[in-house]
Design brief:
The chain has about 325 residues and is mostly helical. It is about 80% helix and about 0% strand.
Length: about 325
């Protein structure tokens, strides 16, 4: 177990380092002058004077050798310092910390809706003996994945806010204002969970141990929901880690559509203003959330399947 945990922690640290290094390369080293981009702020770069460019280069250390810039920025990032915003002058870490609670709240609400919905559709679709019902239930995930997030959000606003007046259209800090954005993100997330769980359940139901359980007199309900569902849960559990990245990416659109302040809206603002220090801080923060979620999922795997720590993942896979 210790080796398993140490291996997963090492992988998590490597992913964070890779995310930081790639973002540094993309934002600071690719063709183009990042100082001119930051000084222009999405506007006309010809209006920026050479004195302003020289001042920014000195301020952000961009007049130093690339290796020194990388080492200095990486050292500061390890202490949580991603510099200051070009446009607001505020520390990037504080801007992210101020925006994070709203997005974490949205992520928690999304997963709380998506997990039971996706699992319920998969269980019902694979359990029913009515062919038309199974086809209907198992075709819903494809429709949910295909529907664009912004379109779903606009339809929900039109129906539940403007036509029926049941829920607020825009974020006002209340619990009711969280429901529509969470549903918008939960529908495609639930669809993905249902697709993976249904396929895993069908595979599990074809395994020899299911026949053994039936031969011993276990009821169909017990075989389906206890024996098969438990062994099939590893695949959707892995998807949950990926869904954190999906929700963070979707929050850019959803928080803009529903006028909610959060990481997504901060990302949209920073990208449109070409605020490079904020963008890099957000990339690393997003990678952190993704890594922590996947690390939690990896550490839960041995709880569901002890063979992972006894013989290793490869042995289980075979």
């Amino acid at each position: 177990m210790t080796t398993y945990v140490v291996r997963r922690l090492a992988q998590a640290v490597f992913v964070l380092w890779a995310a930081y290094t790639l973002s540094f390369g993309v934002l600071y080293l690719l063709p183009g002058d990042p100082v001119t981009v930051m000084a222009a702020g999405g506007g006309d770069s010809t209006s920026v004077t050479p004195e302003q460019l020289a001042s920014l280069r000195t301020r952000y250390g961009l007049d130093r050798p690339v290796a020194e810039q990388y080492a200095t920025r990486l050292g500061h990032a390890l202490h949580g310092d991603f510099g200051t915003s070009v446009h607001t002058g505020e520390p990037v870490g504080r801007m992210i910390a101020d925006a994070a609670p709203a997005t974490l709240e949205l992520t928690a609400a999304t997963l709380a809706l998506a997990l039971p919905l996706g699992a319920g559709v998969a269980l019902a679709g694979t359990y029913t003996r009515r062919r038309w019902a199974a086809q209907l239930l198992l075709s819903l995930p494809s429709a949910g994945v295909a529907a664009p997030t912004f379109w779903t959000g606009l339809v929900l606003i039109q129906l539940f806010s403007f036509r029926w007046g049941l829920l607020p259209a825009f974020g006002d800090g209340s619990a009711a204002s969280l429901l529509l954005p969470a549903v918008t993100l939960a529908l495609p997330a639930a669809a993905l969970i249902a697709q993976v769980f249904a396929k895993s359940l069908r595979t599990a139901l074809a395994e020899p141990y299911i026949g053994t359980a039936v031969a011993k007199g276990a009821s169909r309900l017990r075989v389906h929901f206890s024996h098969a569902a438990r062994n099939a849960a590893l695949a959707p559990l892995t998807v949950v880690g990926v869904l954190v990245g999906h929700v963070l990416a979707g929050s850019v659109v959803v928080e803009t559509v529903f006028s909610r302040n959060g990481i997504g809206r901060l990302t949209a603002t920073a990208v449109s203003a070409q605020d490079i220090p904020v963008v890099q801080g957000l990339v690393v923060a997003g990678a952190c959330a993704f890594v922590l979620a996947n690390l939690a999922v990896d550490l839960l795997h041995p709880v569901l399947d002890p063979r992972l720590t006894a013989t290793g993942p490869k042995a289980v896979a075979t």
